[in-house]
Fold each of these.
Amino acid sequence: MTAGNIHSSDDARRIAKRRLPWMVFDYIDGAAGREVGAARNRAALDAITLRPRILKDVSERTLATEIFGVSAARPFGIAPMGMCNLSAPGADLMLARLAAEYRVPHGVSTLASTPLEEIIEVAQGHAWFQLYFSGDGAGTFKLVERAKSAGYKTLVLTVDVPEVGRRPRELRHGFKMPFRIGPKQFIDFALHPRWSLNMLAKGKPAMANFELPGYDFDRTESRARANWDTLKKLRDRWSGKLVVKGVLDIEDAAQLKAAGVDAIQVSSHGSRQLDSAPAPIDILAEIRAEVGVDYPIFYDSGIRSGEDMLRAFQRGSDFVFLGKILQFAIAAGGEEGLHQLWAVLSEEMNIAMAQTGLKHPLIA
């Protein structure tokens, strides 16, 4: 199968599962605990229906929108994802080029496998820096200053990882960064020669933002010290837009708005943190009702199609971010595969808009 065979996100996942080492696929695909949370969110999304409307002139439709006053060609962007270059060498920059072409935000993870400075340059400024608070916070605030110097205008503080969730699929393979190669991993890589040879030729991925002297990060280090005072310090230091990601509580949402946060992102971290968390799509409407119609709310977690995105807009989201399905598209077909899936998602949304009588996904 090639990129031309990607007609849905399920196609991309199926091809990626065959091409990626088991360890890498399960790191990208796995969720917390028994993965009930991921199934719960999928079921909640599937339960939302979109009402077809007839005899409405929807001949002129657009997917263009604005986010923080900046025009974007799509109402969806790229969620921050760590170690994207595991899906294929150069994946981070494939995503950055896509962001530049469609003028959408590329969430650059603290754990990106390409330096944050290079990504924002390739993305032509269409990049937001995602931040984890870690340890005592000293390294965190150094990264904030570094992002500011690199030209980032939007900071995304991820708050739903006080401790890294237990993901059994990942743990069974002994996934660690950097890789520790034992007999089991050696066999895994040997059985996936295309991926292994590409990595051998291009070099194994690393946490690129921590390769400079004075920058250290332990992926398993506790992030539990962050509190509302931490947020206040960050708000005081960061003059650009501040988004808080990982919100699943109505009271938290209201408090974030009162604290001067510019937007919140409703998310369960792709169900990778707490197996018993509520379905984010169900919480979305409740949070919208709490914060009002004008306050920006973004959404990620479990999105697999253009219709899923319309469901999120129907529940109150202003913008949607896509995660692992983009990595699967890259693993399945490289940059061509990424563009193929992006076109599929755009077409799915466009057709669903026509069916439901919409000229714009955010305007009824």
Amino acid sequence: MFAYFCRQNNISMIEINDILNQKYLRQMDGVYIHDEEKRLCIIAQSYAVCENSIAVLSNLRTNTSQIFYGRACEILGLDKAVTHQTISSVWEEEIFSRIHPQDMKRQNLQELAFFRMVSSSHVKDSFSWYLEHFMRMRDANGKYRIWKHRIFYFLGDGHQGISYSLCLYNITAGDNEGAYLINTMTGEKKVLVIEDYNILSDREKTILKMTADGKSSMRIGEELGISKHTVDRHRQNIIFKLQANNTTEACSKAKRLGLIN
């Protein structure tokens, strides 16, 4: 069936093998990738080919992403069908730039809520869930069309906590909306309600706002009556919750999400 799909879409098996054998499956920045990343790269590539989707595999430990472009990327005006790209970020900005601004904010909040749900759970079954939501994305003609977005999280071998995320973008029909948590083992589907999740605590919002105002950990600690160590711990928690690389990026992201002014 896979070979038939490739013939129908004018994709040769040689092209597929060439893509799967590129250097990103063997080496990155001089460090050999573990088998776990090879396996996930093949999974992401398979989604891109079989569903014509855009598949983004992000390594949250190294802050890098592998983007696999299925043929549907042409709808967005991206001339990258059946290609692969490596970026030094877990944010696929070229794709994000095509998402409607209102949907972008909602998407980030939904993803962070889902990330917190999975990362804070001590139940292994939590990784059986994925998030499915819908967004408007601008096509090559400037018209917004509905796309379905799914995100899966994975534990890395030998590592505690979430190590990888896989995002899938698919064109879809209709006026779908809402965000849903779907269990791949049971088929259960439930609505994700953002109000049920406090992305940042009130104390974390206060510290992040003071950080955005240029205050040091020492100064923040003095004003709040807590130690510098406690402030630094809060900052690390904020960076983790917002999936940012540093406090500067966390402040910028929090402002876009409306978590701080």
Amino acid sequence: MKGRFPLTKMRTEIRKIDAESLALAKEIILQGGVVGMPTETVYGLGGNAFDDSAVQRIFAVKGRPADNPLIAHVHTDYDLSKLIDYDPPYAKKLREAFLPGPLTLVYPSTGKVSKYVSCGLNTLAIRVPSHEGAQAFLREVGLPIVAPSANLSKHVSPTSAKHVLDDFDGLIPLILDGGECVGGIESTVCDVTGKEPVILRPGLVTQAMIADVVGSCGVYSPKFAAGEKVKSPGVLYKHYSPRCATALFASDEIAAASEYAKKALAEGKRVGWLSSESAKSGLPSGAVLFNLGMTEDEMAASLYAHLRSAEEVCDLLVAIEPQKQDGKMAGVLNRLRKACASVDIPH
């Protein structure tokens, strides 16, 4: 799809969300354009879900693989029956419990949106963001807006308007500035096409939280060898990666990580150390500390901002996995492992 939309340079504006910027955003969307938009999790790259050209433009601008489906965002009062073919009773319970919020539900689709949204599948992922600016934008346009994270493919996801500009300056006309994202990692994606919900991508709404509401919840394990198509973004590819070398160590490998960092420092490399508050003890002299914090919410909210900061000042980022790895930390760990996915560390 890249070849169909030559990426000509244009002027990119960042504008606070008000009546004037929302009217401009609507005009761009209705003309088939793409707008940077905030949510409570990360910023998205939004386009009209019904418009083939707009959806293809999103894939082209991001450099996104053509088999990686998109999520449709709607306002709180949008009539889902326009988009979904079946609404299981347990899905209604999940919406009542968690929406608007950082939960995406994958339903059987009516097929009304562009065929490119779900990459040939008969399902559709839908999210109702809680961010006030996102809701204002969605109500203004009155359409489902497909919006993958507003970063170049495989780069670190954006949690500020500036992050979006860093990746797309000159490539999109408008970024709606809704401030810093409070969630920090992408929404939980949950398949509701079967007898029980199944998490496809972990996030801030956890397996236990879902099971508490509907009684049970499975977790999807991708079968890479089978060549299956996935229903959710963020499953099969290396994602979230900073533009510097990375090395990821387990929570009980702080000493080994410290030695690895010291060796790199001795070679003249600029080294960063990314860890929770409890693991910063291994920080060697001369390395830059990127402290994720202490709580689950702090670590989720700060991860991407630290990865973006690290790529600006480091040749190598040494990262330590959080000690707690369930609940919300399953989502943080998922992103951290994908960000450092290609490194083979001799230790």
Amino acid sequence: MIKTIEAINELRETVQAWHNQGLKVGFVPTMGNLHAGHLQLVDKAKQIADKVIVSIFVNPLQFGVNEDFGRYPRTFDADCEKLTQHGADVVFFPSVDTMYPNGMAKQTIVEVPEELTNLLCGASRPGHFAGVATVVTKLLNLVQPDYAIFGEKDYQQLLVIKRLVADLCLPIEIVAAPICREPDQLAMSSRNQYLTPEQRQIAPQLFVCLQWIAQQLQEGSRDFERWSVEAQRQLNALGFKSDYVEIRRAADLQVPTENDKELVILVAAFLGQTRLIDNMQLSL
């Protein structure tokens, strides 16, 4: 069974011993309740590093009021079994007190500039990316890996983390892994299990929506606003409550011009109480 570390000093001693041997360390931060998407990140880490650490920490700082922190699934034993099967070396399993010893109200906060964080999911979830940036900065400082692997499903989060690592001059390479999908193309997420059987049948329409917009763009249309509005109308007619459907520049999430070629289509929508996100990158 995989080794579990809860204390910071033991974590640092373990990583220091690896670095002293000249070993490269890969890191996969998670909130647990691991599915095949998470395990794909572990596999990616195994390919590029000698040792792999996975953190499991449900971060209260990134959940807003009335969000699902309390009911977010905790499945530590099952997670450890999966990590053992995929060859991870250590699971870092800190408590809230370990991560925030002075309480969250007195925690120094890391904030990436608003141009990247106050739009899309940041507009819908105020404070979310400050919570993400803060906990990721702490985890990267604690683990001090050579590589940290993040999935592209949370595309805005990925760009936020790349920006903070660059701006804070952290000597860590951020590695992106592609979205892992169910057979019906629904992006894998721990929140998918909240869906009722009826909602689960509807959920793959998010990806259909992305494909439809991509087709319009590939055929030469640059009427970005039109396709965003029409896609939201279609989703709402199917039973979603759309949060946003946006076509943005892939590099910085700003509104594209007609000359931009590298785009990303992003969608967020509720099915009942469950908020789902997805995206598709597009090179025109």
